[in-house]
Amino acid sequence: MAERAATIDFGAPADFGAHLFRVEIPAGRSQPVLIVEDYGYRGEQGGTPRAEERALLPRSVWSAIADTARREFNVRLKVAKVQTGRWHSGRNLVDRLLGRELCVLAWAAETATRDQLPVIGSKWAALRPEERWWLFAMTVAEAGLPEDTQRGWRRALFHALSDGEKPATGRRRLRPMEADLFDLPLFAVGKSN
User: Fold this and answer.
1) Under a CB-based contact definition with an 8 Å cutoff, are residues 118 and 166 in contact?
2) What burial class does residue 167 get, using C-beta atoms within 10 Å of its C-beta: 0-12 exposed, 13-18 middle, 19+ buried?
3) How far is CA 191 from the centre of its chain?
4) CA 143 to CA 152: how far, in whole Å?
5) pLDDT in tens, 104-147
6) Separation of CA 58 from chain center
7) Burial degree of 53 (CB within 10 A; 0-12, 13-18, 19+)
């Protein structure tokens, strides 16, 4: 049986030089939380920086989303039979794919009101990991730095995940108009109009 690689915090490889994310949580409760993508050995090669800051969150926003991310990540880590993690003051290491997902949540929440934060957390949790990875790739291509809060996909994430109410089951419900789209004549194969 193959031995599992050692991990730190939220599934981050214990190997030196791994591509991962760092969540830097200051001890002071009023200081912002910084999320950094660390490219490890790949950094500083071919124009890639050693690390890039991805989000700077007010502490109140971090406090509102941290538990949602922790629960989601720990469920997945348990399934993978990897040690689970918890957020603590200082440097928290996060697996690179989980870090991408965390950025999507952070970017959607960074300008939200207190009432919007639970909706954002719930809608983010309802997304599949692959959807979060795709959203990260689209967003980071044009607006992946802390100062890009009002640009492109970054702003779109806020609107997409903050709009509406919390889904009751965590699954997307079709609205009547969306259900009608599947009844359009265009989709009626073999039917005459």
Assistant:
1) yes
2) middle
3) 44
4) 7
5) 999 999 999 999 999 999 999 999 999 999 999 999 998 888 88
6) 16
7) middle
Residue with tokens 């928290």: 92
| Reported pTM | 0.80
CA-to-CA distance for 158 and 42, rounded, in angstroms? 31
| Location of structure tokens 């989000």 | 55
Parallel/antiparallel/unpaired status of strands 20-25 and 33-38 = antiparallel
Concatenate the DSSP letters of all residues of the chain into one string: -PPPPPEETBTEE-STT--EEEEEE-SSTTSPEEEEEE-GGGTTSTT--SEEEEEEE-HHHHHHHHHHHHHHHHHHHHHTT-------SEEEEEEHHHHHHHHHHHHHHTT--TTHHHHHHHHHHHS-HHHHHHHHHHHHHHH-SGGGTTSHHHHHHHHHHHSS---SSSSPPPPHHHHHHTTSGGG-TT---
CA distance 155 to 111: 9
Tokens at 3, concatenated: 């031995």
CA distance 81 to 50: 30
- Where do the domains of the chain lie? 7-172
